[in-house]
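Structure Section — protein described below
Tokens — whole-number codes for backbone shape
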Amino acid sequence: MQEPVLDFGEKLPPGINPGIRRALVHIERNFTDSVYLEDLAVLAGLSVCRFVTVFRRQVGLTPHRFICHRRIRHAKALLREGVPMAQAASEAGFFDQSHLSRHFKSICGVTPGRYLRDLTQPERPRAARGGYVQAVAV
């Protein structure tokens, strides 16, 4: 799983364009709501096309992908707290549970259900998971 380059738990790198910085702060404050590309571009003082290009170069992800990563990180925290999946999807800014699942699998490589199972079950040996075990002649 690849996390976004920027994590707001840490200080933003100094090389970030001030306009992109304003857009990132706006995303962090509003990621659970609808975030419009046009609004972010205005905050950055750039055209929409230029904003997407500069954002991707400085952050490492497109604005849409960055917002999806942020929402997934929030959804994971909610799921770990025991919030039901449909509610976690809604609170994280996704339209519904299937919308969350699609983006979750794309970003994390597993479904939210599998993520929760992996959190609650210790790692089992491959043979115990029903994997193929070759008999060895003695």
